[in-house]
Amino acid sequence: MSDMIVLNDVSKRFMSDRSIKDNAGKPHWFTAVQPTSLNIRKGEIFGLMGYSGAGKSTLLRLINLLERPDSGQVIIDNEDLTRLSASDLRVARHNIGMIFQQFNLMSNRTVYDNVAFNLKVSGYPAKDIHARVMACLEIVDLSDRSQHYPAQLSGGQKQRVGIARAIAPSPKVLLADEPTSALDPATTRSLLACLRDINEQLGVTIVIVTHEMSVIRRLCNRVALLHQGELLEVADIRDGAIQATTPIGQGLILED
Amino acid sequence: MIISAALLSESIAKLLTMKKEIWQALLDTFIMLGISTTVAILIGGIFGIFLFLSSDRQFLQNKTAYAILGGITNFVRAFPFVILMIAMSPFTKAIVGTGIGPIAASLVLAIAGSFYFARLVEQNLREVPRGIIEATESMGAPPFTIIKVLLNEARSGIVSSVTILSISLLSFSAAAGMIGGGGLGDLAIRYGYYRYQTEVMVFIVILLSVMVILIQAGGNLLAQRLDKR
């Protein structure tokens, strides 16, 4: 199987709080992601797992360059995003959907307009937008809520709007940043089923960040175990069991 | 009771003799308020957007630009309004041909209002959750589209800011009257204060209060309607 996402030695560090400086008076840097290489295959559901501060969200945000890596390359579908101009990067992003822990829906637009917005941004033909919005709302089972505002929806419904919005322009990749962390267990289960359907029926490659072992076990084909900005190992998941080999990795998967 | 009723009818009779001046003053106030609010919304709005976008962690982040824009804003806002009016009089003369009258006063009001409004808009935009900007960026939206999203998400706060702006400009416009701006404030001072015609003063204060109440109520209603959060 060929690779959809290739990360070559990507790293990222942040300047920590400006008031904190070391003895030499230089700003203090904090390494969120050590140089990391990772291949994610076409059509798989890939997990990024670790304790908080492990760098998993940063690693995810490096994939669509929401965070620009300090070094290394990010190759999506054979295209190196780090070499693209600002406008070419915007075009490339139409192929990479993203959903968030806090949903990040536009609160002053209806469910319909939230989904339609992404289609307009990605240059979808205006005459086809209506049909596509309704089709995507159908996929996430929210057709009857199209004229509601996000504030009128439950957390699970909001996240499903997030999914409909993200998949509307038919992206090849869907990035999910802790999509179930704000949801209760029952809602989490139905949301994971929704993500699995999208993966199976639309062939979208999904990368999901989570700290919940159960999410990884139910959803993912493989998982990268991260610790303090470092990739410990990439483990396969067979029959809901994670085959970790490193000690910290094994500790991580025992947590639940 | 009888005495106060007599006083009231006498006051009304006096006010009626001044109908023409009061109408003119009301018109001048509307001119000053209309021109200055409109200009301040446009200039201050654009300025406020750039203040916000050049600030830390935003997509036009630029320390120097933010310091310069912020510095200009603080400098203009530091002026007491009457002093700004005097300081700007050569400039107003050059542009509208005269340093006095409602049009000249509108220009100064517009400048003072612009920088005031810029700060309000900056605050309004800061209240938009950062995640919404990120989501928009992740979709590959160009900067202009992101600005539109920001304004739409902040719209209810911006309407409240316009309300505050127009009420502030209404009260500034009364001060503008002191140096020949005309308007209700000017009339209240010339007749009510210098000529001891208390009824003129009282009437104008009531008139201004009613205007403030109407602007505030209208602003609140609109802000509430626009807020879907």
General description of the model:
The complex is a heterodimer of chains A (256) and B (229). Chain A is of the alpha/beta class and 256 residues long. Chain A is 34% helix and 28% strand. Chain A has two domains: 3-19 and 28-95 and 171-254, P-loop containing nucleotide triphosphate hydrolases (Rossmann fold); 108-170, no CATH class. Chain A contains eight helices and eleven strands. In chain A, the strands form two sheets. In chain A, strands 6-7-8-3-9-10-11 form a seven-stranded mixed beta sheet, with helices on both faces. Chain A has a four-stranded antiparallel beta sheet with strand order 2-1-4-5. By secondary structure, chain B is mostly helical. Chain B has a single domain (21-226), classed as MetI-like fold (Orthogonal Bundle). Chain B is elongated and about 75 Å long. Chain B starts with a helix and ends with a helix. The chains are: A alpha/beta (256), B mainly alpha (229). Chains A and B meet through helix 2, strand 6 and helix 3 of A and helix 7 and helix 8 of B.
N-to-C order of helices and strands of chain A: EEEHEEHEHHHEHEHEEEH
Assigned CATH superfamily of chain B: MetI-like
Strand tally of chain A is 11
The CATH homologous superfamily of the largest domain in chain A is termed: P-loop containing nucleotide triphosphate hydrolases
Structural class of chain B: mainly alpha
- Major sheet of chain B: size, sense and barrel closure? none
Radius of gyration of chain B: 21 Å
Q: What topology, given as strand order, has the largest sheet of chain A?
A: 6-7-8-3-9-10-11
CATH fold category name of the largest domain in chain A: Rossmann fold
What composes the largest sheet of chain A?
A: 7 strands, mixed
How many individual β-strands of chain B?
0
Beta-strand content of chain A: 25-35%
CATH class of the largest domain in chain A: Alpha Beta
Instruction: Please report the first level of CATH classification, the CATH class of chain B.
Output: Mainly Alpha
CATH topology of chain B: MetI-like fold
